Amino acid sequence: MQLSIYGKSKFYDGACFAPVFQFLKSMKYTDLKITLLVIFLIVNLQVSSQVFIPVDKVLYVCSYLYEFQQDSNSNTSLKSQDMTLQIGSSVSRFTSTNNLYNDSILMLYSNEKPTAAGFGKIWQQVGGNTTHPFCKPNIYKNYPARNQVLFTDYLNREYLKVVENPVFNWQLKPGADSLVSGYVCHQATARFAGREYLAWFTTEIPIQEGPYKFHGLPGLIVHLRDTKDQHRFTLTSLRKVGYNSHIHMHERDYRQITAREYAKALNASFAMLYNRIQQENGLTISDDEQKARALQTTKARNNFIEKY
């Protein structure tokens, strides 16, 4: 069964934005908060026009803590985000835990008409769920075909996808066993997208899966970090799913690009936002201090996990 939220045709009808502004009129926010609220609701209008397609049944759910240095020039620019790996019989999905929660809310309201009250209910439940731009993408392994990895994101007003067959030439390190998160783990190394990685995997969970695009070891990856310790993933929980739940694919009219082109587009989006803030082009920022913080935050986002 496919779940369509609000219907594709309504998204392209300018009238569908009326409920957003009706909802805004009922709220009392500062100019900056109103701007952020408009962005949130319009993005969700765009997201809500998609179709959710179940591609596999969820068998296991792994929670990872993703810690990363967002500014390559500052080791104090550490950020963290809760991430989720859904594992099915053949397909897996890795994304921000907030993304999964927001998807579930959108599906919950799938039969409601786009009204101001409807947007108000959605905002109450997802308004505080902020996702760092580095963590927004969805990553599907063994989809659309075996051994393929599908990477999707909404960036610069476009739905983008990368389809690739990443090969990890893992080198096992005998004698480097250790206890990580309660599991006896073995160590392996690999190079991927401009970084050298150390991975700790456990054969106690014989699933060849891991965070982000990483996979192919003879056990679940429990901990992974690059050798500069700028990006690291740590397994925080694992549970077997005993109820009917599915891995959903977002059906959109994606434009296919390469991983290198995506990294370039991501950096360009930050540069574009930086220039908009600097020129106050379409943005209302109440004071100079707030503007300086916004500029610094945007400029600092220069250390995406993939380097080319």
Description:
With 308 residues, this protein is α+β, with helices and mostly antiparallel strands. It has one domain. The chain is 28% helix and 35% strand. It contains 7 helices and 14 strands. Strands 1, 2, 3, 4, 5, 6, 7, 8, 9, 10, 11, 12, 13 and 14 form a 14-stranded mixed beta sheet that branches. Strand 8 (171-180) and strand 9 (183-192) form a beta hairpin. The longest helix has 21 residues, at 259-279. The chain is globular, with a radius of gyration of 20 Å. The relative contact order is 0.16. Residues 1-21 and 28-37 have low confidence and may be disordered.
According to DSSP, the number of beta strands is 14
Give the % helix.
25-40%
| Fraction of residues in β-strands | 35-45%
Task: Label the overall shape.
Answer: globular
Count of runs of 4 or more consecutive helical residues: 7
Low-confidence stretches: 1-21, 28-37
End-to-end distance: 39 Å
Structural class: alpha+beta
Order of helices and strands: EHHHEEEHHEEEEEEEEEEHH
Mean pLDDT: 79
Sheet bearing the most strands, described?
Answer: 14 strands, mixed
**Overall tally of domains:** 1
How large, in whole angstroms, is the Cα Rg? 20 Å
Quick structural overview:
The chain is an alpha+beta fold. 28% of the residues lie in helices and 35% in strands.
Identify the notable features of this structure and list them briefly.
alpha+beta; 308 residues; 7 helices
